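Hey team,

Sharing the Lysophospholipid acyltransferase LPEAT2 run so nobody has to redo it. Sequence (541 residues) first:
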Amino acid sequence: MSDHSVFAPLLPSDHVRHSCSSDGDDNAREPHVILTVDELSTGGDTTNVSEVDDNPYAFIGANRFDMPGSTTVDPFRNNTPKIQGLYEWLKIVVCLPIALLRLVLFGLSLMVGYVATRIALQGWKDRNNPMPKWRSRLMYLTRFSSRTILFSFGYQWIRRKGKPAPRAIAPIVVSNHVSYIDPIFFFYELFPTIVASESHDSMPFVGTIIRAMQVIYVNRFSPTSRKHAVNEIKRKASCDQFPRVLLFPEGTTTNGRSIISFQLGAFIPGYPIQPVIVRYPHVHFDQSWGNVSLAMLMFRMFTQFHNFMEVEYLPVITPHENRKESASRFAQRTGHAVASALNVVQTSHSYGDVLLLSKALEANQENPSLYLVEMAGLEAAFHLSSLEAVDFLDVFLSMNPDSRGQVEMHDFLKVLRLKPCNLSEKMFGFIDVQNSGKITFKQFLVGSAHILKQPLFHQACESAFTACDSDGKNYILEQEFGDSLMLSIPGSSNNEIHGLFNLFDADGDGKISRDDFIVCLRRYPLLIALFSPCLLRQIFP
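Structure output:
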């Protein structure tokens, strides 16, 4: 098998020697065809050789990239995060006495439900099997308490359309997720087994109640945990003694004006699924749990005359067994059905976008929505995790983006500790696909991921470290680092070399270990371009 490494020659040396020999071997006289290449073609697009020369990452096989399409939709924005208008203020003043009564009712209902749940759970140790019937009957008191909690929040009546399918027909239910009201309603209506984050177990009152629902915990960042959760979904959905399983496949709350990408946990088992849609019609108060605190959302609910809620049960969707439908295709069909019933669009946003939005809010960005990138699409294209994307956003925010979320070249170079030069301009130009002189976070993220996920990237990092570590002592001193840097950026001052050295020397011990080197390049993959000259020098000493 041919060697596809960075240093592999295009023509093996033994073949060259044989072709140049003058003996009588027929193989030695095998004619060679010499081609003159004017253009390089990739996927129907042509790239001039001059453009290749301007690509500082061609040496690891990274061609210039096309930006994925973007949408201006922000599926997480609450449209009424603040109290606005005279009518709303007057309504709050009028409803304050009612709000106090509702608060008392909420507290009493929560306490009654909590006590009933503790009694139902007392002494029950075999949590892997279905809850005994007498314990389930005690939970009716908690279910009644959840309805009074909904009443205290202003949901005196809830409009329903359609009916839940029998559990034997659809053992799994999926719903869009708009507010913390959704799970309270479904607890009262269906008393299902739910899939929830592990962090919910430690929440006061809530953790106890969801344990009675025989919750399936999942850590969304752990592949092992996700696999275990899928197995539990399949096990409990296949047994009629368990309640039906409820999932919110979006994995987070939205504002209800769009559907974001579905996680596959509900669809991998391959059981029939009943989609349910939840709406919160409103004029003055958006009840979605977006960029608003829980305390403010509860206060606004308490101070409304009535909060509207509509629940619609859609027809059951069955996987195409004869076509051996994949889980992703099953999820797409279900998502399309939910989006069509809601009359909204479905985007490629995911929980990863929520993490990016939270990071931008923490950094006090003027318009955090500018940092939404539709992570589900990027995860599929680059196998990029949400946590990696958050790390890249941390780097981008250190570049001091303006109010439009854009970064100029001098701020880009400042964070990467580079001086303006031919190579650094090419690095910025590689990201600046629109040649606007500024880059957005999505351009920075896609460009960095494009480099990071190249098959030769890791090997290039290892080879660059070896090339800089001239005497094989397994660490790089500042003098060696500077010598290698001079090949790519001639004329660098001692201060410039020292600044870049400190970027790699994460632990500040005066030397760059192999781990320091690899970790830095994974955090700043664009810097791999600095080491292309020393890599080429290893090939052609």
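Residues 351-453 form a domain with the Recoverin; domain 1 fold (CATH 1.10.238.10).

Ping me if you want the raw files.
A.
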